[in-house]
Amino acid sequence: MTDLFTPISLGTLRLQNRIWMAPLTRSRADADHVPNALMAEYYSQRATGGLLIAEATMASPGNSAFWREPAIHSDAHVQGWKLVTSAVHRAGGHIFLQVWHGGRATHSLLNDGQQPVGPSALAITDSQTHTPQGKKPYEVPRVLGEDEIPGIVAGFRRAFANAKAAGFDGVEVHAANGYLIDQFLRDGSNQRAGRYGGTKENRARLLMEVVGEATAEWGPHRVGVRLSPLNSYNSMMDSDPIGLATFVAGALNDYPLAYVHLMRADFFGKQKGDLLTPVRRAYRGVLVGNMGYTPDEANAAIDQGGLDAVAFGTSFLANPDLPARIRAKAPLNPPDPKTFYTQGAAGYTDYPTMAR
Fold first, then answer.
1. Cα–Cα nearest to 308, from 13, 18, 11, 17
2. Domains of the chain
3. How far apart are alpha carbons 156 and 214 in whole angstroms?
4. Residues 237, 239, 243: CA angle, nearest 5 degrees
5. Which residues are catalytic, by number?
6. Please, where are the H alpha helices in the chain?
7. pLDDT beyond 80 at 356
8. pLDDT for 116-145, tens place per residue?
9. CA nearest 156: which of 84, 63, 65?
């Protein structure tokens, strides 16, 4: 039986199990987005996971969507992340960095007055964002010109190089959850014409350009891609989410990826459908599932060939020794949502292990 504890290889990278840590924004970086020693402790506590995927990290300045999320566009950021990667490696783990651009999900109050940008002038309407002045409605983004998109791609390219300098084992391209690349992918947020709008091929062009830069920088099997075609978070919808996902999964076969990381459902239940079956058929590489898996469900999906690994989110947040607990069938600590985005160690590095 192949299960969560069967080792798996991503090219030359040998992972001890298939219990991966999903990227989770925790807002513990310093005020200038520099990772710190507390973050190093948090990630190294969880190093028994087969692969840790570090939280969404700004590829370039001016697109902060959270207060105190980390970045990777300066030498200070590189040095801060070195604390994290060194701690994880000392603990025997492996870690990829998820790289993003917030697009329309940012706010001028978080970015020195800079207006958010996006594929079309359509604002997020289903929620408000946290700013230094409290919760505020999202702003209508400025439409990116086609002549600006090469600069966006170049920012990702520098971020991928910086991630390598910081000691990561690879990178994950964040093309999910309503941030910039996802905004281009889905026709609910991308209503532009031209080379980056209209057809699925055009809407996926930005993703493919960014993935091309990532694989050129990192080489084979060190780049992952995260997708969430059904998730309506950040006012995201698509007229044909299953068709879009199938097309993108097939197109990604052209790149020597480490994996595709698929969020299988919608947080809010607005869009539904069997996403896993067509993506599994279309994509020939390592497929990682995410969103609400129990260990038993994950084991069954892996053994039946539907998935190759499963990324656990809040259960890994609250259980630094999650693989050991799964193996022992031990109770899990419940996560505390009140501390998901606060500062300090509470609800971050103080969750107890079984031994404690």
1. 18
2. 8-339 (3.20.20.70)
3. 8
4. 110
5. 179
6. 37-45, 75-90, 149-165, 180-185, 200-203, 205-218, 241-251, 276-282, 295-303, 314-318, 322-328
7. no
8. 999 999 999 988 888 888 889 999 999 999
9. 63
